[in-house]
Specification:
2 copies of one chain form a homodimer.
Chain A lengths: L9 H15 L11 H8 L3 H13 L3 E4 L3 E4 L10 E2 L10 E12 L11 H5 L2 E10 L2 E11 L16 H9 L3 E12 L2 H7 L6 E11 L5 E8 L6 E6 L1
Antiparallel strand pairs in A: 1-2, 3-10, 4-5, 5-6, 6-9, 7-8, 8-9
The first copy, chain A, binds a DNA duplex through helix 3.
DNA sequence: CGAAACAACTTGTATGCACAAGTAATAATT
DNA sequence: AATTATTACTTGTGCATACAAGTTGTTTCG
């Protein structure tokens, strides 16, 4: 073994230990982590090191800190600058239902992807699936997804936790999204898009091409989304 | 004086000191800050405190750290998840020219803003200006901007540094963008938008409503953008 | 001359300690 | 009973120190 020398950074092992326990639900969202001093005891270290580990988890959006109280586990999606659909009037309840229309299967890379694939990805087969997201039982987003089969096995659609691919990656494979690049375009709905979203051909559609970078070496997730923003605009927010 | 008790946090004063020197160009983009030990000497403190200050600047996107070399000043825009126009083929050079079409002036708040104004903003007058961004001498983005006059004076268009409003805020007023909320829609071009962007009415246009939060208390910047993404898609990326 | 070793810097990780400041439940006082 | 003070926790800030690890230029050696 030559490559892959792992520096033993104490704060990093603590960080990974806590991260996994958050992912599997040992520390559920809303709960508080053990106090810094308790963690010190468990790992025979000092608060400086523990605080460094917690700082990293803070930066990654897993926890929030409250002086005098503790470190609280938070819903991570909110801390990412991800695009999300927004309810019609902003306050009414609405239910998002995701239907997998083309099951995960091995295909060729689609040339519609506007990002340059890595050499490893080009050489690999590609896993593809398509989903339609419904809000209040009306189709709103048509989403195509690809990833290199060399980097991750085919995950069966029945395996999806709560129908969510990202949730499955996190909880079952410990893979997290660490960043993304996106390209946004406004285009007229093609025949296929119009059919899937139940709208007229030519209606303005928000086209999003996205590449997600993950915590797993070599694994990028590619997305090609078509959003009908007539009733449900796309939201995005970020904060330092 | 009652309100506004400022806790004396040593790392915070160091952080602000360095931030200002970056903003005014004493530490230009690409240069290296003084070493941690030098800063320790200047402020009669320890590396722990200096590193905390640098950590904050790192989180805010002002610097990058390179082990063995130093802390480098970087172009901050890149670290923010801001939307930017992308060149046609991705690699060709293109020049963005911004023309102010309606000079900064005091008006009423425009009801098109889809965010809830604060009470202070509602009570205040509103500064408005409109710009058109050209790429390779063709109009691509029509942009309306508003902010509360109570929070910031009217800045004359001649005062804009390199034609950029945000650059002016940073370098002349030390105000930085700390976050944003955005709403994206795909809409057909209205008559006014079509006229300003030199396109046919009805062509799909990317409509972006944005609220920027700033480092200045009470100051939000509101934007209403219409982008012709036919030749120049909008880019956005974020990383943890 | 070229390569290896070294020295002098930089940032990264870690220990150990002390006290400030915020929170929450309990005890003491009014 | 209601208010106040205390106490025991939590995280936040800061000092002093040590060594690891990465970078760069210089010196030494073959």
């Amino acid at each position: 073994m030559k490559g892959g020398k792992i520096k033993s950074r104490k704060y990093h092992t603590i960080q990974e230990y806590i991260r996994k326990r958050i992912q599997v639900g040992t520390y559920p969202v809303g709960s508080y982590l053990p106090s810094e001093n308790e963690i010190c005891g468990q790992f025979s270290t000092t608060r400086t090191t523990v605080r460094k580990a917690l700082d990293e988890l803070l930066k990654e959006g897993f926890i929030e800190k409250e002086q005098g109280k503790g470190s609280k586990v938070v819903e991570r999606r909110k801390s990412l600058g991800l695009l999300t659909v927004k309810g019609f009037s902003g306050s009414i309840d609405y239910e998002v239902r995701t239907i997998i229309t083309k099951g995960p299967k091995i295909t060729q890379w689609d040339p519609i992807i506007p990002f340059t694939l890595t050499e490893e990805e080009k050489k690999s087969d590609c896993v593809y699936f398509q989903r339609v997201r419904h809000i209040n039982d009306r189709p709103v987003v048509l989403e195509n997804n690809w990833y290199a089969n060399d980097a991750l096995q085919v995950i069966d659609s029945e395996e999806f936790i709560e129908g969510s691919f990202f949730k499955t990656l996190s909880q079952a494979y410990f893979i997290e999204v660490m960043g993304a690049e996106q390209e946004l375009r406004s285009i007229p709905a093609s025949q296929e898009v119009a059919k899937n979203l139940g709208i007229q051909q030519g209606i303005p559609i928000l086209h999003i091409s996205v590449r997600f970078h993950t915590s797993k070496q070599g694994l990028n997730l590619y997305g090609d989304l078509y959003c009908n923003t007539t009733d449900y605009p796309i939201r995005n927010s970020y904060f330092l």
